[in-house]
Amino acid sequence: MNYFSTNNPSHLVSLREAVIKGLAPDQGLYMPDQIPSLPVDFFSSLKGMDFLTIGKTVIGALFNEDLSEKEINDLVEHTLAFDVPLVEVEPNVYSLELFHGPTLAFKDVGARFCSKLMSLLVQGEKIKVLVATSGDTGSAVANGFYGVEGVEVVVLYPKGKVSKLQEMQFTTLGGNVTALEIDGVFDDCQTMVKRAFLDTELNQKMLLTSANSINIARWIPQCLYYFRAYAQLENPELPLVFSVPSGNFGNLAAGILAYRMGLPVSKFIAATNINKVVPDYLSGGGFEAKPSLQTISNSMDVGNPSNFYRLLALYDGDEEKVKNHIKGCFYSDEETRMAMRAVKSSTGYVMDPHGAVAYLGLKDYLSEHDFAANGIFLETAHPGKFRDVVEETLEIELELPERLAAFMEGKKKSLALPNDYQAFKTFLQS
After folding, report:
1. In this structure, what are the phi and psi dihedrals at residue 403, rounded to the nearest 5 degrees?
2. How far, in Å, CA of 94 to CA of 86, rounded?
3. Is 412 inside a domain boundary?
């Protein structure tokens, strides 16, 4: 299969080039030039299907032209070493818990897939993986690539704008992982990474790639847990609504990829905090990037989401289709805290701030449209990753899972850099 740039559909590259380059030369994101439709009998037998079988079927449909059956099986088995359970929080309102992987965040699926696929494709070459993070991407990618021979990982994160636990997950590793603490916001980190990919001088000296959701190897596998969610529903014949907490919008775009492959989704909800450029667009405005604002749901503090253009491409550039199928909404920190308290009080279920934003979006949509449906909101990180916010909001003491607590015992190793591309470039060259 070939992959095209969202900025130029006639620019086509192979799987290897799309994965290794990460970003197209025209700064577009790569997309598969064909989206396969899964057979009807796959969906009729999906209920109760295990995650590995789902993964091998879906990834096989997407990559069978480029990878052998053994490579696909190895890739899926490495990636899906944990499940994503669907938990009923209220009648027909479910939390899809995506935090049962190594770093307890949804990005573990993409990071594990990306590291394994790159190891298949680079064939012994040395490579630098550059990743900008607003929180969970850094920890998932750093741990996914930690110790992988021939790969150096450089994580850029905004100083003082990720949770302490998130920071410790990628700054304490050392080895082939270097953390750069940038005096700026996430969008500044992302801009520096993109500039590096387009820097001819740098790219002549070293092989650079990305493990952000701009890279198809990080983005595509996220479609898998939408299929797994459907497989766990008691009544899959009801209309299906997904509410996705959205920052860089890769997760939502992956859900739409699953829909394009045949998953019957009636509505997607793009739920954000006050960084609401996409909800503004969906409600009738134009897409206008803005400086990001800091919130308690920091992984969504993105003012210029890269994957917005994937959303358009998945609907063949038809803005009317985009706005008809996706509902945008946004919530303040106080509304987020109120939802966390209300759900804990009524059901005992503890949500992290990002899941709470998605829950609000789902509940508001279902109350506006009074019909029987399966409503699923994505819980993208374990509440313990945002311990301070959760404990303060709910007035409880959280017990951290062993895997999280262990990171807090490590020693932070990071290098402070100004928000300056030349300083970043000098570091890479050194």
Report:
1. -60, -35
2. 6
3. no
195 CB neighbour count, 10 Å cutoff: 14
Q: Residue 166 has what pLDDT?
A: 84
DSSP letter for each residue of 195-252: HHHT-HHHHHHS-EEE-STTSHHHHGGGGHHHHHHHHT-S-TTS-EEEEEE-SSSHHH
In a domain, 194, yes or no: no
Would residue 290 count as lying in a domain?
A: yes
| CATH, residue 375 | 3.40.50.1100
Domain that includes residue 100, residue range: 54-106+219-394
How far does the chain reach from its first CA to its final CA, in angstroms? 37
pLDDT for residue 169: 87
Q: What is the pLDDT of residue 266?
A: 97
For residue 196, count other CB atoms closer than 10 A to its CB: 22
Distance CA 263, CA 230 (A): 8
Measure the CA–CA gap between 39 and 188, rounded to whole angstroms: 43
Residues in the chain: 430
Residue 11's pLDDT is: 93
Residues in Cβ contact with 14 at an 8 Å cutoff, skipping those fewer than 6 apart: 2, 3, 66
The residues near 79 (Cβ < 8 Å, ≥ 6 apart) are: 55, 109, 112, 113, 116, 221, 224
Tell me how far apart the alpha carbons of residues 147 and 388 are, in angstroms, rounded to a whole number.
31
Averages of pLDDT over runs of 10 residues in the chain (430 residues) are 96 94 90 96 94 98 97 96 97 96 90 89 85 82 84 92 87 93 92 92 91 89 98 96 95 97 98 97 92 92 93 95 97 98 98 98 94 95 92 94 84 94 95
- How far is 288 from 278, CA to CA, in rounded Å? 8
pTM reported for the whole predicted model: 0.89
- Residue 59 dihedral angles phi and psi, to the nearest 5°: -65, -35
DSSP H or E run through 271: strand 267-272
Q: How many domains does the chain have?
A: 1
Q: Is residue 82 part of a domain?
A: yes
pLDDT at 297: 95
